[in-house]
Amino acid sequence: MRNSTFIFLTIFYTTIVFTAKSQNKIDTLQQKPTYSIEEIVVTGTRNETDIRHLPLTVSVINRKQIEQKHTPSLLPVLTEQIPGFFNTSRGIMGYGVSGGAAGSMNLRGISSSSGGLMVLIDGHPQYMGIMGHPIADAYQSLMADRVEVLRGPASVLYGSNAMGGVVNIVTRKMEEEGIKTNINTGYGSYNTLQTEVTNRIHKGKFSSIVSGSYNRTDGHRDNMNFEQYGGYAKLGYEISKAWNINIDANITHFNASNPGEIYNPLLDANQRITRGMTSLILENHYKKSSGAFSFFYNFGKHWINDGYTENPDDDNIPKDYRFNSRDKMMGISWYQSAQFFKGNRLTAGIDYYHFGGRAWNQTLNGDKIPQVDKKQNEIAGYIDFRQNIDSWVTLDVGIRFDHHNQAGSEWIPQAGLSFHLPKNINLKLTTSKGFRYPTIRELYMWAAANPNLKPEQIWNYELSFSQHIWDNRLTYNINIFYIVGKNMIMTTFVNGSPLNVNTGKINNAGIEVQTAYRISNSWSINANYSYLHMKKPVLAAPEHKFYIGGLFSIKRWSISSGLQYIAGLYKSLNPVETENFVLWNMQGSFRAAQWLDIWVRGENLLAQRYEINAGFPMPKATVMTGLNINF
Q1: β 124-126/270-285 pair status
Q2: Which helix (H) or strand (E) holds 16?
Q3: Per residue in 560-610, pLDDT tens?
Q4: Alpha-carbon distance values, 458 to 92, 160, 413, 434 (Å)
Q5: What's the CA gap between 199 and 631, in Å, rounded?
Q6: Which of 437, 453, 616, 620 could bridge 607 with an S-S bond, Cβ 3.0-4.6 Å?
Q7: Pick from 45, 250, 322: which is nearest to 168 by CA?
């Protein structure tokens, strides 16, 4: 494996250098590069802001990068492109929930499975109302114009669950006048099918986007089939030059099976999950002020059969009940940002969240055994102040007061400096607090429930250095961070019984590097690396994560390839098991006609044997091919 990797890297580097030299003569004939670092973001500030003036670290994945991956889920491209970010997986498609599930997202050693990492859709929180974690299968590529990942606490703007950072999915919209329709379909290994149809309209002041998808696979193991239906719609209307309104809705339903660990397989471990969201956003954009009022509503419906083994030694028989839950989350958000004098920007906002649900076990004869039926409220106000001092430094300070009806109140401060130095150098210093309220599950469900839990808290200290050189052909940034936390919720035994308690501590440190180089208008490469040191190991948090990828595009051809190296990945904590592996992926497309692209995607082309979830071996090399039709 090491020899194969070395040979591949040598060929890859030699090819890049040779082709770059030959392509310099025809640069002007080719399209603009895909890999670039965006400058304007909304995450971390609520209003569109030049990323150089933010003390926080934000990485952006644009629509072209999403489309080049040719995957229904957004998570694979994030794992490749975002340093410090990793998500678990167990097969060619689908993550599932409950036992044996994957799709847990981890950023700097803080996991979404415990609610420490928040997923947003257009700035609105997305998580299961009872369990408090995001549902990975709900975040599909069809809805995303771009994804902005804020690495580090974002609790000042987004409150609880943004303790370790946020993944903000910015939804698509039709910018240019006209009507466009896209059909993308593919088929490949293990009888895997993916389809997507999208229609976009922009007529005068009205715009719309409507998408639908169907995806399925037999899986690379018995009893690992996955099926998903998804739909997304967004309607927009420009009321005036300063005001516009958007209404959107997204729903996904998936049926998943959990085959169990290979050494203890399961039967009938099936799940039927429905997740939905809808929102209304009224925005205003003036010369010196901008803001929005929004309402959102998320809901979920879960039906889970945990299955059984056929091992006589375990004396297991089919369960006589099924777990059911209904959860919801409703929110109202308002913010306004204004410039009162030169170089100043003040943003103030109010958030109100109402969430919860009920869960029960339903026996085969129809009896319901209640598990929990709870609702909670969270209300907060925040202020963020940013001031440019001359042209070389920006000061940013923010504070949030957040109140939870069960867990009490929290003050959340944040402060940072951004230095804009000669030769396009940016230096940033920031310190910020993150927190997470205990979930309904931790407070009230099952034997370990403890209604007296306190919020988890962390402090993040960060130094960032970035530069654009060679006419912006090369960009790079380096981040060094240190995280210390207390009151982390852990399950321990007290007087012989399990109990959730605030005894855990966190002490993480690391470095992240990200770079992109446009060799020519046809060739570009990008790479990222992250090192994470943890005093206490965390599942799915690799010690080393490295990725290098390249894109070549000329005339009708486009080919991209990437190599990812993972080392020190904890796939189990009891017993402690780690994993190292190298993945080589490649995608390519050919424009056969003005309206038709033919694409192919290969993953794990080195046929590595590896596991991310202990007992769930990943598939060897897989291939997908399909058509992309535009009219």
Answers
A1: unpaired
A2: helix 2-23
A3: 999 999 999 999 998 999 999 999 999 999 999 999 999 999 999 999 999
A4: 35, 12, 12, 5
A5: 10
A6: 620
A7: 45
pLDDT band at 314 (very low <50, low <70, confident <90, very high): low
Residue 313 φ then ψ, to 5°: -65, -25
Q: What are phi and psi of 354, to 5 degrees?
A: -125, 120
Residue of 312, 245, 307 whose CA lies nearest to 100? 307
Give per-residue pLDDT as tens, 278-298.
999 999 999 999 999 999 999
Instruction: Please say whether the beta carbons of 185 and 194 come within 8 A.
Output: yes
Give the integer Cα–Cα distance in Å for 371 and 359: 5
Taking only the tens place, the pLDDT of each residue in 235-271 is 999 999 999 999 999 999 999 999 999 999 999 999 9
Residues 468, 422 contacting (CB under 8 angstroms): no
Question: Phi/psi of residue 604, each to 5°?
Answer: 50, 50
Q: Residues 619, 611: contact at Cβ < 8 Å?
A: no
Identify the burial level of 596 via C-beta atoms within 10 angstroms of its C-beta, where 0-12 means exposed, 13-18 middle and 19 or more buried. Answer: middle
Residue 17: is it exposed, middle or buried by C-beta count within 10 angstroms (0-12/13-18/19+)? exposed
Give the three-class secondary structure for 444. Answer: helix
pLDDT at 526 over 60: yes
Report how far residue 285's alpha carbon sits from residue 292's, in angstroms, rounded to the nearest whole number: 9
Q: What is the pTM of this model?
A: 0.91
Torsion sign, CA atoms 424, 425, 429, 435: positive
SS3 per-residue string spanning 68-104 = HHCCCECHHHHHHHCCCEEECCCCCCCCCCCCCCCCC
Largest CA distance in the chain: 76
